[in-house]
Design brief:
Blueprint lengths: L6 E7 L6 E12 L5 E5 L3 E4 L2 E4 L4 E8 L9 E9 L18 E8 L8 E7 L4 E7 L5 E10 L2 E12 L4 E8 L6 E9 L4 E8 L1
Antiparallel strand pairs: 1-6, 2-3, 2-5, 2-7, 4-6, 7-8, 9-10, 10-13, 11-12, 11-14, 12-13, 14-15
Length: 205
């Protein structure tokens, strides 16, 4: 969302053969200085309606609205957790069912113009792994899709996954070693969610 957006539309699709009931919670999302996620229920945003009943193969449009003024300098971060309510589905006759509640956690960002991440990373070698420490000194999140240590285009160690680093946060990552790594100059490659990459020179001892 942009600061000027007071609400956005979200389309929910039930692709299954049974009716489902969903309930949404909005959480303010922050991270500790070492990158541990912290979620706190908030009334900064609301989803309307908060409880959704979806018949089989149906879709419904809901609205996510921001109730507080947006920050004009730094990105605001939230997570909308959409939970299935299994108790709302009746069990079939003469059967025993164990309800399993599924949940979807979706990040929500309110991003002012000009807000962007500013990432700096360094790497060290231990006996069993490569440790990478990344710090985001910017005003918007950084999502790391791939972290790779290379030497002359040969992959030495790698980590894949959608790793978020929020503004002002430092996170330590462990890379899986793929090749024997000797001392010397290497390159650390960071690939972000937008497909762009950032490179750092690393001298391993």
């Amino acid at each position: 969302m942009a600061p000027k957006d007071r609400a956005v539309a979200i389309t929910l699709n039930n692709e299954g053969d049974s009716e489902i009931v969903l309930q949404a919670d909005i959480n303010a999302w922050s991270q500790t200085s070492t990158g541990v996620d912290q979620l706190v229920l908030t009334e900064d945003m609301i989803l309307s309606p908060p409880i959704i009943k979806l018949p089989p193969r149906a879709r419904q449009v809901v609205r996510l609205a921001l109730l507080k003024p947006a920050d004009t300098q730094q990105q605001l971060s939230y997570r909308m957790i959409m939970r299935e309510v299994p108790e709302a589905t009746a069990a079939k006759a003469n059967t025993m069912e164990v309800p399993i509640a599924l949940a979807l956690s979706m990040p929500v960002f309110i991003t002012p113009p000009g807000a962007k991440h500013q990432l700096s990373c360094q790497a060290t070698r231990t006996q069993a792994e490569i440790q990478v420490i990344c710090e985001n000194k910017g005003t918007a999140y950084a999502q790391l899709r791939e972290v790779q240590l290379k030497r002359q285009e040969q992959s030495l160690a790698k980590l894949e996954g959608g790793i978020y680093i929020l503004p002002g946060v430092q996170k330590t990552l462990s890379l899986k070693i793929e090749q024997v790594i000797t001392a010397g100059q290497t390159q650390l490659s960071i690939t972000f969610d937008d497909g762009k990459s950032q490179f750092f020179d690393v001298n391993l001892f």
